[in-house]
Specification:
17% strand; alpha+beta; 40% helix; Aminoglycoside 3'-phosphotransferase, Chain: A, domain 2; three-stranded antiparallel β-sheet; 256 residues
């Protein structure tokens, strides 16, 4: 490999480290099953994914995908409605693909139990006002229903979808959470903090989006993930992030 100027730390916490070395990304994961799933999912997914350069446990090296991320939390996306529609079309191809042979990591009961534990922590710790947590917990209930499983990415953050200047999806990265899952969850994670872009995603995705369930997943994911983010050095209270997502729901009606 040619000399590079520096090694960049992309993500670093107790579970995973991702380094960038020039045009190569090296992932080191404490749980080898995560990298197993990442490799298997990219082989099965009918969408552009990074090229695997080598794997030597506990590390996986991937080539940089072309293009730029669809956006980041807290900043308006620079990409056009057509790019968001292209992302929706790519996600639809994924969701329509044959299911991967492994199931999701959590059952519906486990998701519900974790949600209630995290809501209790958010209130007892003083991280958020009780009425804000309670209101979002009521909204989240709509996501807690049986679903028809699809091939889901599982962590489809806006920073994980790359597009080019021609509004084409050039790569989707970070597949360690891929599984048989709720397709509405993928759509919610993609549009988290960019809720106004859901209509553009729907243009490419086509029929079948349950907007109430997507909205519920915005609340559920933000409630469930906030403590983990805080404990691993991230700030869910940054502009446009999870706490802002929860506050935005206060202007919406309660279910029922």
């Amino acid at each position: 490999m040619a000399d590079v100027d520096e090694v960049q730390v992309v993500v670093a916490h107790s579970e995973r480290v991702t380094l960038r070395v020039g045009e190569v990304f090296v992932k080191i994961d404490s749980e080898q099953r995560n990298l197993d799933i990442e490799v298997e999912a990219m082989a099965l997914a009918p969408v552009p994914t990074p090229t695997i350069l080598w794997r030597q446990p506990p590390a996986l090296a991937l080539a940089k995908v072309p293009g730029t991320a669809l956006g980041v939390l807290g900043v308006p996306s620079p990409h056009s409605p057509a790019a968001w529609a292209a992302a929706g079309a790519a996600i639809r191809r994924l969701h329509d693909a044959p299911l991967p042979p492994w199931t999701g990591r959590r059952t519906l009961d486990e998701i519900t139990t974790r949600l209630d534990i995290e809501c209790e922590w958010l209130i007892s710790s003083g991280a958020l006002p009780a009425d804000l947590v309670t209101h979002n917990r009521e909204i989240a209930q709509a996501a807690l229903r049986p679903w028809s499983p699809a091939f889901t990415h599982g962590d489809l953050q806006i920073t994980h979808v790359f597009v080019d200047d021609h509004d084409e999806v050039t790569g989707i990265i970070d597949w360690s959470e891929a599984s048989q899952g709720d397709p509405m969850f993928d759509l919610a994670i993609l549009t988290l903090g960019h809720e106004d872009r859901l209509a553009e995603v729907a243009v490419g995705y086509g029929p079948g989006i349950d907007h109430d369930v997507v909205r519920a997943w915005w609340s559920l994911r933000s409630l469930s993930a906030s403590r983990w983010l805080i404990e691993h050095g991230f700030d869910p209270d940054s502009p446009g992030c999870e706490f802002d997502v929860l506050r935005a729901r206060m202007n919406e009606p309660r279910e029922g």
